[in-house]
Every structure is written in C-alpha cells, then in structure tokens.
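thought: fold this chain, then report.
action: predict
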Amino acid sequence: MDLPFLQVTTMGLGGFMIRTLIIALLAYGATKILSGVSVKNFSSAVILAIVLALLNATVGWLLSVLATPIDFVTFSLFSGLIALVINAVVIKIADNLLDGFSVKSFWWALGFALILSFGTGLFNMPFGVSM
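observation:
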C-alpha cells in the first residue's frame, strides 16, 4: 500500500556526505571568524556536522513543533528569527555533547547559527539544493 503522505524524500548517502562536508567546512571557517566558538580540528568539525544533523532531526524538530503556536500567532513574521534561535539551542546542546567543540555563550551560538544558515543558503542558490 502506497501512502504518499508518509513518503520521505531521501538525498542518499552521497548527498548526505557532501552536505556534511560542506557544513563541516562552514563550521570550521566560522570558528576562524567568531572568537567565542572553537573547534579543535577539521575532524572535530565533521563530527560536529554529523551531531548537528542528528540533533536537528530530533531536538530541532521537537522545538520547531513547540514553536509553531508562536509562529501562528505572529503570522510568521518572526519565523526566521525563531529558526535561528532553535538552531542556536541545538548548537549549545552540541557544545555540551562534544569535547572538540565549544561555544562561550548563547549569543555566540546565535552568531554561529547565523553564519551556518547564511553559508548553506549561499550553497543552495546556485545548485538548487535543499539542505
């Protein structure tokens, strides 16, 4: 039985690996810009990218569902800001889970989230790819 509303589009393992490396490069580069965020080395950045993907799929999704009433009440005026705050919370959770990654405060996590979001958006534009 085919249930179209339950189908999930997959990017495949190759696409996941490419996106993980892009996020790792962006994260590693962002730590060179932001003094309040640090990654020990590039392999730690790759592990960070994997952990962020897993956290966004679980905790990020749950926080997005919980933030839906706020988004509804404000007529989605603050949806981008809400998404950045959710990403900053996920980044702070990753900070607590990983040894090779540290973020000094929530504000540094928010700046890091902004750089990652902007970078992935720039990557998506020429390729028409959704991350």
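thought: worth noting. Residues 1-10 have pLDDT under 50 and may be disordered.
final: tokens above.
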